[in-house]
Amino acid sequence: MKWKRFLPFLLSLCLLFVFSAEVAAAAVSSEQETAASYLKKQGIMVGDQAGNMNLDKGLTRIELATILTRLNGNPEHVQAEQVFYSDQCKFLDVPDWARLYVGYCYFNGLMVGYDTGAFGAYDGVTPAAASTVVLRYMALPEVEWDYSTACQTALEQGLITSEAARKAEITRGDLAIMLYRALGNTGPTDTEEPETPSTTGISKNPDGSINPPADGSQYVPQVGHVIRCDDGTNYTITDVSRWNKNMFQDGPLPDLPAATCDWSLMPQVELPAPEVRRYSSAGQDYLFIRNIYETSRMLYTLYNAIGDNPETWKDGQPVLHPSGNAKVKIFLTIPTEITPQTFWPWRSTEITNLFNSCPPGTYYLEAWDVYKNGVFQRTEYNIMHRI
Fold this sequence. Notes:
Layout: H1 3-41, H2 61-72, H3 75-80, H4 82-88, H5 99-107, H6 127-138, H7 150-156, H8 162-165, H9 172-184, E1 203-204, E2 210-211, E3 226-228, E4 234-236, E5 276-281, E6 284-290, H10 292-308, E7 313-314, E8 317-318, E9 328-331, E10 341-343, H11 348-357, E11 361-372, E12 375-386
Parallel strand pairs: 9-11
Antiparallel strand pairs: 1-2, 3-4, 5-6, 6-11, 7-8, 10-12, 11-12
Helix pairs in contact: 1-9, 2-5, 4-5, 6-7, 6-9, 10-11
């Protein structure tokens, strides 16, 4: 029969498909292992009590909440406010150990519950839901998408594998690949240096270590930079992939604000001295660098808010108290006994809304770059108001 002549060809074709599928599966498995190792090192995905990453296991909503908190939250802040965040979790189906993470995500608008009042703690995570989280983190201003197109957009951006996109629910390994690609393969990677306008203002020590700028110029970290700390030790930067990128940030930060009123009439504030604080906590190596450039962003935003408010600005000049004293005082350092309001990424409304709620008073402003184990985490903005 004629079909017998095609039998060897058909068998070869089937073997080719099987072999190709096995190669593709092996490639995905290899990337999952690499991604999981990277995320474990960063403390984002840590596995079970035995350290097993369980990459083939389905991802649950409480696991996603845990990972989102580690990805976005300041660990010291989260732990210090664990009672507050745990109390934000009103869902009865969330186990005690996860209430902190679910509460953090719920309070910060990262995740919500169902209309039934349940969180769906052990429900799986769809590719669309996972794609939404990662695309928010990527903050791609030139890409338009919504929840209904999130999965396709993630595919087009190379963030999710085609295999994961076809699943009803993703695995822990699928999410590991997505986060790994988002953190390491878009914009600056952990081996690339971000493009920077300049690093003027930095100085070097005899051993080659760097002192951050003291003149208020912008310092953009580079992989391999060795920072001299205030305690005399050196700290090496190993990863800058998160620099100027946050899942809730619309895009790269703009230039510093331009004056909308006469800043020369404002309280003239001396720039703070550089500070580089290093400390260890729970086996993690942290570095805080005072960001004078971003502190200036806060100051200029506050200046413009003063000029826009009729209670503090009239007829082209500041409104004074009857005593002749300024209604607004500004300091660019925060005393240790004061607990400030902290936010990130940058949002000018945090300053303008606070100012307009009670314009007169004393304002304390600071910005800090935060690193963990050599990896840039975020720029934190601190503000405090006293009447």
